[in-house]
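User: Design a sequence. Structure:
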């Protein structure tokens, strides 16, 4: 069993009491999976994704939905100079890569006209995997503690016109997601993202419950020796520090997919499908391409964190997928906070011989 520095989990913006974990019934789990996930399949090698139809069939005469990138340009073009002074920030502003628990500055309902608000909602829908993904992104339309779409924020960093670098950032309670038209080279989602939901992460009321349940299925399938590798005492922390990549050659906590049997690896592939299921196919495919370039799913480690300073009867307070250029840090209790950072690692050339 690996030991880690024990840093107490914290949630400075949203303190909630721990809700007792509800009974974990496999039939209930399967019902929840069917209701909350879109269909993704990770290839046997873990390097490609194939998604079933994400939205209902489009009538022949219906206009094709614009991609998020085109909608961002349209939003930018509709903004007044006064709006741009507040809502458009420099590309190199430090806030561009940060994760937020509320609007960065002005709320959507205060800052945008009604037509612009509709554009912002269309952008958010465009980076979601159909209706199911949008339902998860919005936490069933509640936007969690934000209470409504209008209470969230949407900002542009840089300039989305004429091939310049830009990033659109949507932020609210337990949510920071991005779209940057690949302005940030080799970075999935345009940089770190954050998502969560206020109910206890072991509860079927949590909209991301299915993700933890499938991770626990992996643990159930491990041998005792494998579990000793997978369990970490402590917690991995939260916010930006929790998703920093380890130095090249530094060990990752937990058990690597390469050390699992074929059946166990298929369970890991199911987890990879689940965590990517809320996001549009283009972003999910980019994630898997980066995983492939960084060495494949075989190099991804799964770790379960026992936080001994939290006094409850639940075994896991965090679970974490981590590998080269890949961090998916998921806090289960007292409610779900998930911090994600994925980027292609640069390969340093070997030193010259002689």
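Assistant: Done.
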């Amino acid at each position: 069993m690996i030991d880690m520095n024990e840093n107490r989990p914290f949630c400075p913006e949203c303190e909630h009491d721990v809700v007792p974990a509800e009974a974990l019934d496999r039939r209930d789990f399967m019902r929840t999976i069917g209701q909350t996930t879109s269909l993704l399949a990770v290839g046997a090698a873990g390097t490609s994704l194939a998604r079933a139809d994400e939205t209902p069939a489009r009538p022949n005469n219906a206009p094709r939905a614009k991609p998020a990138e085109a909608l961002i340009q349209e939003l930018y073009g509709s903004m007044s100079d006064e709006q741009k002074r507040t809502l458009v920030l420099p590309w190199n502003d430090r806030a561009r890569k940060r994760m937020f628990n509320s609007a960065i500055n002005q709320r959507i309902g205060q800052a945008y006209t009604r037509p612009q608000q509709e554009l912002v909602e269309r952008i958010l829908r465009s980076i979601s995997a159909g209706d199911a993904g949008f339902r998860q992104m919005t936490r069933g339309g509640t936007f969690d503690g934000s209470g409504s779409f209008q209470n969230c924020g949407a900002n542009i960093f840089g300039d989305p016109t004429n091939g310049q670098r830009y990033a659109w950032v949507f932020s609210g309670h337990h949510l920071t997601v991005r779209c940057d038209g690949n302005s940030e080279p080799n970075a999935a989602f345009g940089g770190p993202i954050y998502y969560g939901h206020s109910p206890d992460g072991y509860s079927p009321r949590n909209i991301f419950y299915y993700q933890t349940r499938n991770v626990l299925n992996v643990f159930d399938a491990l041998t005792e020796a494998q579990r000793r590798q997978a369990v970490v005492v402590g917690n991995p922390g939260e916010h930006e520090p929790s998703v920093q990549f380890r130095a090249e050659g530094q060990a990752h906590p937990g058990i690597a997919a390469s050390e699992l049997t074929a059946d166990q690896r298929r369970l890991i592939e199911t987890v990879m499908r689940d965590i990517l299921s809320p996001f549009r196919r283009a972003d999910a495919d980019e994630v898997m391409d980066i995983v492939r370039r960084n060495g494949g799913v075989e190099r991804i480690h799964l770790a379960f964190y026992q936080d001994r300073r939290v006094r409850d009867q639940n075994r896991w307070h965090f679970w974490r997928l981590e590998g080269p250029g890949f961090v998916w840090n998921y806090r289960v209790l007292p409610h779900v906070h998930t911090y994600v950072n994925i980027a292609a690692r640069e390969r340093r050339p070997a030193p010259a011989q002689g």
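The chain has two domains: 2-10+18-37+199-342, 68-184. Residues 262-276 form the longest helix (15 residues).
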